Amino acid sequence: MKGRLPFDGPSLGEVLKKTFHDDVPLKGEHWRNVSWEAKDLLLKMLRKNPTQRIDLEEALKHPWIQVRIQ
């Protein structure tokens, strides 16, 4: 699987604009096999507003992480 930007657009300026103003799209074929728990954690870690972003302690308590460290 090749890495790619979460946003696309006709120009770099348009991609950057979407990066600052749009939510991260977790849809499409490459996200089909990603669990809801993983998507939930990603969305919480990628919130634009830092005061709403999940912190390290909360992330470590997230169900997706807990299943993997037990």
Index terms:
70 residues; mainly alpha; 4 helices; 47% helix; flat
Describe, in plain words, how this protein is organized in 3D:
The radius of gyration is 14 Å and the shape is flat. The chain has one domain (12-69). Helix content is 47%, strand content 0%. The protein has 70 residues and is mainly α. The mean pLDDT is 84.
The biggest beta sheet is recorded as: none
What would the principal axes of the Cα set say about the shape?
A: flat
Stretches where pLDDT falls below 50 for ≥5 residues? none
Count of strand segments: 0
Q: Report the average pLDDT across residues.
A: 84
- Work out the radius of gyration: 14 Å
SSE ordering: HHHH
Our count of helices gives 4
Structural classification: mainly alpha
Strand content: under 5%
- What share of residues is helical? 40-55%
How many structural domains are formed by the residues?
A: 1
Distance between the termini: 28 Å
How are the secondary structure elements laid out?
Layout: H1 12-21, H2 36-45, H3 56-61, H4 63-69
Brief account:
This protein is 47% helix and 0% strand. The protein is mainly alpha-helical and 70 residues long. The mean pLDDT is 84.
